[in-house]
Amino acid sequence: MENLSHNDEYQQVASMLPGITVFAPKPKLEKERKAQSYTCPQCGGCLAYNLVTSGLACQHCGYQANVRSRAIGPVAEKNEFTEDTMKQADKGWGKLRNLIHCQQCGAELSYPQGAVAASCPYCGSNSVNVTVSESDLFQPQALIPFSIKPDQLKQFTQSWIKEGWMHPAMLGESARMDKFIPFYLPYWAFSTDISLDWAAEVAHTVTERYYDASSESWKTRTTIEWRWENGTVQKTFSNFLVHGVNAKRLNPNILEELYPFDMSKLVAFNTDYLVGINANAYDVDLNTAWGEAKTKIRDEARELATEDASNTQVRNLSIDMSYANEHWRYLFLPAYIAVYQFKDKKYQVMVNGQTGKVFGQKPIDWKKVTLAIILALLPGLAAMFIGVPFVLLAGSGFAIMSVGLILLIIGGIISFTIYNNATKLEAL
Amino acid sequence: MATLPFTPAAEIRKEAAWMTGAALEVCPACKRVFLISEQKSKQSCPLCYQAELVPQQSFIRQEAPEIILPAQLKVEDIRLALTDFVKSVPLPVQDFSVQNLMDRAQLVWWPSWLVDADLQGTWTGTMGFDYQVRTAKENFDDQGWQSKETLRTQTRYEARQGTLDRHYDNIQVPALRSHERRLEQIGNYEKKTTVYYQAGMLSQNSVQIPEIEPQELLEVAQTRLHNAAEQEIMQANEAQHRQNIRFAGNYLNFNWTQYLLPLISTSYQDEKGSVHAVILNGQTGKIYGRRLASIHRASHRTFGLMAIPLLAFVAALVITLVAPAALPVNLVCGGVIVIFLALLALLPVLRAHHWNNRENKIEDFN
Question: What ipTM does the predicted assembly reach?
Fold first, then answer.
């Protein structure tokens, strides 16, 4: 009995029967929930996470310390969709942080206590104010530390900014991206098994002989015969990522272009990694994010059902789908965010803090795009113009007209593609 | 001072002080020992009916029964149960009638041990807690996706440990080697209606006495106490499942008493003169026994029915003699009819044989 009461790993819990005592393991997160002090033991200055050394460093005396790191990889703790778990899930940041509200774009940014935010990384605005920290937020369970050092960013972004011909020629020289803000972005990672029973009419091509009365001979023809088929497909989705940032603040297309992240590098959430680094609380709540994930899973389910059929041409498809082992995790994934200015307009760029993949907004040079469209259409138009006099005067030149028409169609397709891409890039 | 978990041998006597006027008798055939009232002394064994009881010289435990389960069947209930039991038998043996079975029915009490003990020590184990998770069933058709949210019950297992200091009352431990088999035959008893034993409650009835003494049952008793403790530990944890519960401690203050269960016993004699017992659960009326059909009666019926194809054969013969022109037709039709009727006539004896073959696979209660 004495052994039990002195066991540090267990604590006494309520028993429903007299004469029986019950001891349960102590909650694991108890230690991590305590506020941490990040004061330099040498000079009393502030410690901050150093992206170059991947450790804690004093900004005044240079003292360095290792972070408390616990690699967990893909087996990081998962949560289920229980009401109890949702209510009991750990809340708060583990260290007192301020939420800073940007009055221009509405972003809520979590900054270390006492930090001065010079500008909003999303919109570049200088007008920020501190609001009361929300208390009903989940605590992140794991994060991927930054692997890309700040001095590597220039190399990555310079090659990215020069990519593509639709952008202004001066962009590479004018766009100044010297201020990258390291940021932990909130992501929901979902895992689930799905099992779907499908039924559909599947197209089968059938070759048949028939008697053609007009030619008085037997011929063959190919027809489509629709046959009912059904099947069962099972699939496991693991770490299906949905970002937790409001689409009004960060373009979801940019966020999704930062994928993939290597989940084997996940470490248990630890405030050491956040000291001096910005972290954004999630705007998209769990249910909304799970809804988005399920929309994508449904699309994939339809594809899976179609692929399972003997032919991908199907009609009257019906699917019964059930989920099992649904889990979610709230993660922090690393990114650098920069805002650069070009001709009085601000553009957002993000760099995957783990892989160095760059994606962001770039201005479109519509003169270049128009010229490219004209050049694409020109050969066809020219051939048509040359062909017309020949047809009118000599009664020949149909071949040139035909070539012109084909070139015009090709040019039209190319023009449409160029225009479409330009519009999409500008919409970013 | 440690308490002996059972009555010392010195205190076990020849007479049962708690059932006055009863003698200890044994069945030479099945070896069962009974406390029999003087009126029923030296009668057939009330359970196997294979031999007459003879006085027993062995000892008997002195503990009076603590509780008994009163027989709840009324005469009409017994008659109804026996009627159902008898009616489906094709051509039952003559002695196997509801009235005969009713006339021979008698109440017999059979024993089980009840153990009281204290458990003190520590326990460790894994507890399973049910919880519900939100999930969804989704359907896709021409109308698009339809989603229906549902709840799924899952179990979370967690390690637990603690201490135990509890008293357990009336934990049932078999007193007969055939305890489990008997329950399989006549079903379980519902313990809710038990009453405390009072002197005179069992007069005129036969009481079977335990075959297994408590000292042989210590391990079984500890297992059952452990099971009861496991159940309570689960309850204390508010858990719905349990795994690998281990108890380290002492089983103290054993107290053994008897628990008597009611059984209705009756019998019948088959055509070869063998006696078969039929038993009923005295609480629920569930019945067990071998039901034999009469091969003699079936044979007589078959012989009787054989007269019909014989008459048909004679009729066909007469028609053939009267109208010889139709000889081939008469021969074929008459032959088919005669063979068909002859086969039909065999049915009673075939059915009786088939029935008895099936019944003989049922273990006789003896």
Answer: 0.72
Closest CA to B108 of B193, B181, B186, B56: B186
Looking at this protein, which amino acid is placed at residue A275?
A: V
Strands A217-243 and A358-360: unpaired
Give the nearest partner residue to B161 out of A19, A23, A323, using CB atoms.
Answer: A23
Q: B-chain residues within 8 Å CB-CB of A320?
A: 137-139
A244-281 confidence digits (pLDDT tens): 887 777 777 888 888 899 988 899 888 788 877 877 77
CA distances from B49 to A326, B104, B105, B182, B366 (A): 64, 11, 12, 17, 8
Q: What does the alpha-carbon distance between residue A17 and residue A14 come to, in Å, rounded to a whole number? A: 9
pLDDT of residue A30: 45
Considering only CA atoms, which of A428, A137, A89, A124 is closest in space to residue A258?
A428
Query: By the 8 A CB rule, do B253 and B142 touch?
Result: no
Partner-chain residue, chosen from A4, A80, A319, that has the shortest CB–CB distance to B140: A319
Which CA distances in Å does A317 have to A302, A322, A368?
A: 9, 17, 46
Mean pLDDT for B140-153 is 92
pTM strictly above 0.95:
no
* Average pLDDT score over residue span B205-226: 91
What is the 3-class SS of chain B, one letter each residue? Answer: CCCCCCCCHHHCECCCCCCCCEEEEECCCCCCEEEEEHHHCCCECCCCCCCECEECCCCECCCCEEEECCCCCCHHHHHHHHHHHHHCCCCECCCCCHHHHHHHCEEEEEEEEEEEEEEEEEEEEEEEEEEEEEEEEEEEECCEEEEEEEEEEEEEEEEEEEEEEEEEEEEEEECCCCHHHHHHHHCCCCHHHCEECCCCCCCCCEEECCCCCHHHCHHHHHHHHHHHHHHHHHHHHCCCEEEEEEEEEEEEEEEEEEEEEEEEEEEEECCCCCEEEEEEECCCCCEEECCCECHHHHHHHHHHHHHHHHHHHHHHHHHHHHCHHHHHHHHHHHHHHHHHHHHHHCHHHHHHHHHHHHHHCCCCCC
> Which residue would you say has higher pLDDT here, B315 or B358?
B358
Q: Report the C-alpha gap between B134 and B136 in whole angstroms.
A: 7
Nearest-CA distance B213 → chain A (Å): 31
Query: Rounded to an integer, what is the distance from CA B326 to the centroid of its chain?
Result: 65
Closest by alpha carbon to A168, among A18, A341, A17, A303?
A341
Question: pLDDT for B74-92, tens place per residue?
Answer: 999 999 999 999 998 989 9
Interchain CB distance below 8 Å, B131 and A326: no
Distance from the Cα of A2 to chain B's closest Cα (Å) equals 10
Q: Is the pLDDT of residue A100 over 80?
A: no
Inspect the interface and report whether the beta carbons of A324 and B139 lie closer than 8 Å. no
**Tokens representing B278?**
């039929």
CB contacts < 8 A, A to B, total 94
Torsion angles phi and psi, residue B291, rounded to 5: -115, 115
Give the model confidence (pLDDT) of A328-350 as tens digits: 998 999 999 888 888 888 888 88
Give the closest of B122, B236, B237 to A4, CB-based.
B122
Residues of A in contact with B238 (CB under 8 A): 16
Instruction: Give the integer Cα–Cα distance in Å for A184 and A167.
Output: 30
Q: Which burial class, exposed, middle or buried, applies to A421 when counting CB atoms under 10 A from its CB (0-12, 13-18, 19+)? A: middle
